[in-house]
Amino acid sequence: MTELKMQGNNMKNDLTTLASNTIRILAAEGVQKANSGHPGMPMGMADVAAILYSEFLNHNPDDTKWANRDRFVLSAGHGSMLLYSLLHVSGYDVTMDDLKSFRQWGSRTPGHPEYGHLPGVETTTGPLGQGFANGIGMAIASKMTAARFSTDKFKILGNHFIYGIVSDGDLMEGISHEAASIAGHLKVGNIIYFYDDNSITIEGKTEITFSEDTAKRFESYGWQVLEISAYDHDGIRKAIKTAQSETEKPSIIITKSHIGYGSPHKVDTPEVHGSPLGKEELLETKKNLGFPVDKEFYIPQEVKDLFSKRKEVLAENYNNWKKEFDTWKKENSDRAKLYEKYMNNWLPDNLFEELIAAAGKDANATRSLSSKVIQKIAELVPNFVGGSADLAPSTNTYMKAFGAISTGNFEGRNFHFGIREHAMGSILNGIIVYGGFRAFGSTFLVFSDYMRPVIRLASLMKIPAIYVFTHDSIFVGEDGPTHEPIEHLAVLRAIPNVTVLRPDGPLETAAAWTYALQQKDGPVALILTRQKIDAIELSPDFNNQDLLKGGYIVSEGKNKKIDLIIAASGSEVPVAVAAQKILQDNLSVRVVSIMSKEIFGKQSDEYKNSIVPADVPVAVVEAASMTGWGDMFRSKFLPIGMTGFGASAPAQVLAEKFGFTGEQVAEKIKNWL
Fold first, then answer.
1. Do residue 287 and residue 400 come from a single domain?
2. pLDDT at residue 13 is higher than 50
3. Is the pTM of this model over 0.90?
4. Residues 498, 364: one domain?
5. Are residues 391 and 357 in the same domain?
6. What are the start-end ranges of the H helices in 360-434?
7. Residue 621 phi/psi, 5° resolution?
8. CA dihedral 324, 327, 331, 332 (to 10 degrees)
9. Which residues are catalytic?
10. 371-399 b/e (C-beta count within 10 Å ≥ 16 → b)
């Protein structure tokens, strides 16, 4: 610690050092004023960040959605005051009051960066490893954009870098292994990550849990590995230039740093990771770095001038790009029109009708019906891309008329994510926040467990990721309880802002996909069957638009006065109809399909009451945990679902053993009534 203090007192009094120390102290002051936060990482990596933003990052603070900007991802999101300070000095609409209100109610500067709260924040980070994988999704999206729209003459779209700062925690989390492997395999060469190697975690030295050779690990993934000191300014510049010149391998720059750098007594200690310096230590840090102790949130004029001049350069770069972009549009009118469709998420006006026709009328497994719909979507919607976690032959999601993205080739529409569900979901998030693509990922519903963190973040960011989850119930059958989802529907429905759709046949499958494509402000999960579902005949005057309301009447009771409603979703809707036929001799029974609780819940009270009157008893049939259904129906309510795990047997045997035949459902309802 003494040696570092001497370094602080003898630092070169150059502009880069002054800018680095300004950001270092701004970050520490924001945390101190909030009396909450993480000052250590921003203080340790301030030099790297200052050089990146003042010399290399190509962006435009006055047009924060500029398509060809470099992206910066702070995967170590706990160090958010570093990013907020950088955005302020760089000229973004981030005020000094924003810095001073860090972590406070109503502030635009929350404890971890949140997408949509502040200009310049490219994605929501905090849960470690997510930013790491999101950035890889952005880099893949940029490569796909370049493959579609750049020409030999005009390399103006997708021609940029994805920078990031990642921490020990990011590299320990399993998602980083999955995502790094994909990036190296695909040769996504526009990724430049700084690994903040400060040897400290909350519990102490990283050596207590983390002893692998990080350099060899990333070399084995196919990454370029560079090593520097976080305080060697020329070394930082050289490393960035070397990384920029590598066009195939992603780059990770192992940056040896000191957490809390500049603090005389807390540098290199676990305490500085997640606690304010304290007023006295903050004053000592200012003295150590040659800053006035009587000024708070102080930015020297030289630093203001540095970033002001940089902003002028960036504005010139941006204006030159705009001119070139205008020329490209004139000379490539067809591509320009297509690009507008991408950026506006264009959909054809008759989408629903087209998808209904594509689904057909024959009974089938909804995964098979979905496959027909996907082929039509791929034909109609040019920016529709997606893939699976090595399960496309089972989830039926491969777009047959289009190729796949592969090593160094980004023209395709299909992804092979490999057996990496967590990375798949996080990469989807990165692709979507990058802009221009409607993206889906698919796997079995039971493996949505591996994706819950990324689904939650997609929901928090309000981005329209699409998940295709097949093999949706105990009727997976012979694979047994390890592959038979029980609680998964309830879990997905419990995540705020997630829309879950479980269709029962061709019409509902077309409707589910229509809703998913039209959704703009949250993720959608399509829940599809492995097994064939019996066809249901709707009345000739049925209005297909009611399918988009989440719930509707499938089969009406024999009298105007309804004695009972049987509600169901997906493969259990035909079971409900079979039970209705048995009960109809003595009761007037209405069958209702609830394809989506979330969508149905958003309808008017008038509509909901017309489908499920409040005073009518309701039996709900769903081969899953019934958690949450009682919240929807406050009248007399009978849940007919699963209370334990499934078993290994043919689907029809499971239906009989667990009580999901029409006869068994009817008998349960008789006993209940």
1. no
2. no
3. yes
4. yes
5. yes
6. 366-380, 392-395, 421-434
7. -115, 120
8. 60
9. 421
10. bbbbbbbbebbbbbbbbbbbbbeebbbbb
